[in-house]
Specification:
- This protein is of the alpha/beta class.
- The chain has two domains: 5-139 and 277-316, Metallo-beta-lactamase, Chain A, CATH 3.60.15; 145-272, Rossmann fold.
- 21% of the residues lie in helices and 24% in strands.
- The protein has seven helices and 19 strands.
- The strands form three sheets. A seven-stranded mixed sheet has the order 7-8-9-10-11-18-19. A six-stranded mixed sheet has the order 1-2-3-4-5-6, with no helix packed on it.
Length: 335
């Protein structure tokens, strides 16, 4: 039996009787990060890295949670575990598993690029590597991130000159904080959708520093937003929430903007290629640098990427999971 089995509940370690990022209720869950496809409600106990604890509590409420430092080792029935930075979002972690001399690494979602606010990715060595492949095709190659932030700033300035509100979609956890940390926050007022404002508040209470933002209020007038940047989850642009902005330019920040026609299909004025996942070159670099022989792509272009890895001399097979990676339709807003 393998150290980690791929079951209909999630990644299962039978000797320790724990699951990693299970998508059905289990007794003991180890969680890589706070996105809802990886951190689900209903488990009897949770373990995560300390910087992810406030996120899980904010999203899941009252749960039985044990939190560890990055690199801190803990053992369950003779199986050794530790969390290591994944670079995906604040509090994201890879899980290193060592059992009987065999090392497995579960990445969760990850990126090699340092975004300045997430804990930077740590390269690990292992025999078995469970990796996402959200953008596992050669067409996905990200441009320099500073250029993307400069383009967002320039677009915002243009909208200010035209007396338009600037509405930019971003995940409420991860991309929203990354954008806030890296844009020119002195250009004008910044407002956030309630889902993003609440997440920012939870993070700031635990020491994460972000520029000041105000929550969009129903009492505000369209004129209040003429010079403003407004961050909202992707799904909010198709809701009644958007009606409060009389004249607005809508932008989308996503890795999917690398696809021709993606911006148009979203009904957006601008598309900015920005992802919290690996692009094709960094995905392959990560796989190579693990030294692993056995590779298991879990979501994204799993079949194509597994075939390509096998052609490069690895032993790879796709694994079906309930993880979704990055989606333009993600995060139905709740406030």
């Amino acid at each position: 039996m393998a150290v980690i089995d791929f079951t209909d509940k999630g990644l299962y370690l039978s000797k320790a009787n724990v699951y990693i990022d299970p998508w059905k209720p289990v007794d003991h869950a180890i969680i890589t990060h706070g996105h809802s496809d990886h951190a689900r409600w209903g488990h009897q106990s949770y373990a995560c890295v300390k910087s992810s604890a406030p996120i899980l509590k904010h999203r899941l409420g009252s749960i039985k949670l044990t939190a560890y430092e990055y690199g801190e080792r803990f053992s369950v029935n003779g199986v050794n575990f530790s969390f290591h930075p994944a670079g995906h979002i604040i509090g994201s972690a890879q899980v290193r598993v060592e059992q009987d001399g065999e090392i497995w690494v579960v990445t969760g979602d990850y990126k090699l690029e340092d975004d300045g606010i997430s804990e930077p990715y740590e390269q690990l060595q292992c025999h078995h590597f469970i990796t996402e492949s959200t953008f596992g095709l050669p067409i996905y190659t990200w441009e320099d991130q500073q250029k993307t932030y400069d383009d967002i700033n320039a677009w915002w300035a243009q909208n200010q000159a035209e007396k338009k509100a600037t509405v930019l979609t971003a995940y409420s956890l991860g991309k929203a904080q990354r954008i806030l940390h890296n844009i020119n926050a002195d250009m004008g007022p910044i407002y956030t959708h309630g889902a993003i404002w609440n997440m920012n508040d939870a993070l700031q209470q635990h020491g994460i520093k972000l520029p000041h933002t105000d929550k969009v209020s129903v009492s505000q007038k369209p004129k209040d937003f003429e010079n403003a940047l407004i961050l909202c989850p992707p799904a909010a642009t198709g809701s009644a929430w958007m009606k409060r902005f009389k004249s607005a330019s809508i932008g989308v920040a996503s890795g999917w903007m690398a696809l021709r026609g993606a911006r148009r299909r979203r009904g957006a004025d601008r598309g900015f290629i920005l992802s919290d996942h690996c692009d094709w070159p960094s995905l392959n670099q990560a796989v190579k640098d693990t030294g692993a022989e056995y590779i298991y792509p879990t979501h994204g272009y799993t079949d194509i990427y597994s075939k390509w890895l096998n052609e490069q001399g690895y032993t790879a097979r796709p694994v079906e999971t309930a993880f979704v990676g990055e989606s333009l339709e993600a995060e139905t807003p709740t406030s």
